[in-house]
Specification:
DUF1501, single chain, TAT_signal, three-stranded antiparallel beta sheet, DUF1501 domain-containing protein, nine-stranded mixed beta sheet, 12 helices
């Protein structure tokens, strides 16, 4: 490798070598190592960038105002042509989400409707930032809530304890605790320059010290080796599936892959988590949900993307295998969409949405249930006269999972979600006793 004649201002030669090697090899650079926890209980967060239309995913067919507000986009009642899949007397699931129905029927899946961020912004950038920082309305928070969670979990540290799937480091994992990064596609961990024995020997000598940068290098190298070994064990298993294209507004997706790309990567992600006993937290994002135009109802743009997403979630669960019993998957989006359809066959930026929950720990609690207080869709009940009102702060869904599932104590929870408001209603019962 040829070094440039000069280095960027303030960048030590060792720093430049490490970053160059990382770029050549797809090597993730974690920051300082901190403490971690029991890897048997896992949390996977899937971010739907672009604001998915939760009203056409978890369909309130029992609310008469729903069909009136969406004469062209409303999903029909269960039992009708193109109708929703029945969940309970009020709600049904979009027919394109049929791959998830077996999990609902087994009590492994639930939803929290009318949930979201209390901040009223309808900016994709700001809303995603607040969802990932865990501090709605507060700009400038330096780190993401999953990184703060990683730092606060009990138990021993490992280089691959937190895993981010995607080609762009997400805001949610920004911070000082180390995170392993895995690119998308089946060749993400194929051998690269960084895996050459000669280069590794040279870098090992260069970073043999006890300083923070040397520890970063060792963590990054170890996490890559762990992931390659774990993924090699699962390479024989097939991947998934289907359709799609990015949003009309690229900024809404923030570099996230499409639902089809997620479907192809999801099984591999699940197998990697299952094979590496040290991996406890994982994050990925899926774009393509900013459906201002030609959204469609039971078929069309949203239906195609939703089908691929749900096939991907099914593939993720299949890849997790038996470890799904100790894993909770959370699916969330930055905000919902307007109750009334617009004049171009779509929906615009709104407020309340539905959070999805999947995993064995939900059985006997949130599994097979749609939770949250339903505010209704009558005009007088809408936020700003146009949107589904938010009755559940997204942090009040995550907090009981972090404590009841991952064992986070009160002091650590306060660091993960600072200034978390007290919940007016009784706490959501999400997990089995």
């Amino acid at each position: 490798m040829t070094l440039p004649p000069t280095f960027p201002t303030g960048l030590h030669r060792r720093d430049w070598l490490l970053r160059s090697a990382a770029a050549l090899g797809g090597l993730a650079l974690p920051a300082q190592a901190q403490n971690a926890a029991d890897g048997r209980r896992r949390l996977v967060v899937v971010m739907l960038r672009g604001a998915i239309d939760g009203l056409n995913v978890v369909v309130p067919h029992g609310d008469p105002a729903y069909a009136r507000a969406r004469p062209h986009l409303a999903i029909a009642r269960p039992g009708e042509d193109g109708g929703a899949l029945p969940l309970d007397r009020l709600f049904g699931l979009h027919p394109a989400a049929s791959p998830l129905m077996p999990y609902w029927q087994r009590g492994l899946m639930g939803f929290v409707h009318a949930s979201g961020s209390p901040d009223p912004t309808r900016s994709h950038f700001d809303a995603q930032d607040y969802l990932e920082s865990g501090t709605p309305g507060r700009k400038g928070t330096p780190d993401g809530w999953m990184n703060r969670l990683l730092a606060g979990l009990p138990g021993p540290h490992s280089a691959s304890r937190a895993l981010s799937l995607g080609n762009t480091p997400p805001r949610i994992f920004a911070g000082s605790a180390p995170v392993a990064f895995l690119g998308t596609g089946p060749k993400a961990l194929d051998p690269k320059a960084i895996d050459q024995a000669r280069l590794q020997r040279g870098l090992a000598k260069l970073y043999a010290g006890q300083d923070a940068l040397s520890q970063d290098y060792r963590d990054a190298t170890q996490s890559r080796q762990d992931m390659r070994r774990s993924l090699a064990q699962a390479r024989q298993r097939p991947a998934g599936m289907q359709d799609d294209a990015p949003s009309r507004d690229p900024s809404a997706d923030a570099g996230a892959p499409s639902a089809r790309s997620f479907a192809a990567d999801a099984r591999r992600l699940g197998e990697l988590i299952r094979a590496d006993a040290q991996t406890q937290l994982a994050f990925t994002s899926v774009g393509g949900w900013d459906t201002h135009v030609n959204q469609g109802g039971a078929s069309g743009q949203l239906a195609g993307r939703l089908s691929a997403l749900c096939e991907g979630l099914d593939a993720l669960a299949q890849g997790l295998g038996d470890s799904l019993q100790d894993t909770v998957v959370v699916v969330m989006s930055e905000f919902g969409r307007t109750v009334h359809e617009n004049g171009t066959g779509g929906t615009d930026h709104g407020r309340g949405n539905a959070m999805w929950l999947l995993g064995g720990p939900l059985q006997g609690a949130a599994g097979g249930r749609v939770l949250g207080e339903w505010p209704g869709l009558e005009d007088r009940a809408l936020a700003d006269g146009r949107d589904l009102a938010i009755s559940t702060d997204f942090r009040h869904v995550l907090a009981p999972l972090l404590q009841g599932h991952l064992g986070l104590d009160d002091e650590s929870l306060a660091r993960v979600f600072p200034a978390l408001p007290a919940r007016g209603a009784p706490a959501l019962k999400l997990l089995r006793s």
